[in-house]
Amino acid sequence: MKNLMILTSFLVMSGCKTNAQKLKISSIYSEPKQVTKEIPETGKTHTYTTRKEVTERLDPLIFMLSKNAGTLTFRIQGNISSSGHSIHQVRKIRFERGAQSGNTVTLKYYVEIKKVPGKESADVLGYNYTKDETYKIPNDIKIIRIELYEERINDTSATKPKLIAQQSFNFFPKI
């Protein structure tokens, strides 16, 4: 009987879908590059090594993926720098509903960046992040303004979050 209950609950759970909107984080990699430079005063050549990014950095953007009856799906994307003796990691993207004035609502998203002690690998220059969000549009709202902020949580020098991207979506019927 116990095994039957476990099997039944497993079958019920396997049919469920989660509506979790996952935060996707990927590393920005670099590779070493040899550079040769001639010094005009002495006429000698000097060879040194620099680093060249091989992974594309995502620009901080907010763009619409789809708009259905009453729901708006959009993507939040951006990047953070993390190299050398300072490791910065994206902890999460936090949502705060802002003020509503008339038929306009402001949605605020905060990218929480945490500084971790240690040393980053020489091949890692930072991290790209993307997250898809779904917002149910109330009937009286015609303009949705979305703002994206960077917030450093354990850095005492940056007390105020920094606005890195904003986008407005206008849903007034076109005449």
Structural features, described:
- With 175 residues, the chain is mostly beta strands.
- Helix content is 7%, strand content 59%.
- It is elongated.
- It has one helix at residues 2-14; strands spanning 23-38, 45-53, 61-68, 71-81, 87-101, 104-116, 124-136, 143-152, 162-170.
- The strands form 2 sheets. Strands 2-1-7-4-3 form a 5-stranded antiparallel sheet, with no helix packed on it. Strands 5-6-8-9 form a 4-stranded mixed sheet, with no helix packed on it.
Query: Largest sheet, if any?
Result: 5 strands, antiparallel
- How many helices? 1
Q: State the share of residues found in helices, binned by percent.
A: under 10%
End-to-end CA span: 65 Å
Structural class: mainly beta
Shape: elongated
What pattern of helices and strands is seen along the backbone? HEEEEEEEEE
Model regions low in confidence, pLDDT < 50 over at least 5 residues: 14-19
**Estimated radius of gyration:** 23 Å
The count of strands amounts to 9
**What percentage of amino acids are in beta strands?**
over 45%
Mean pLDDT metric: 85
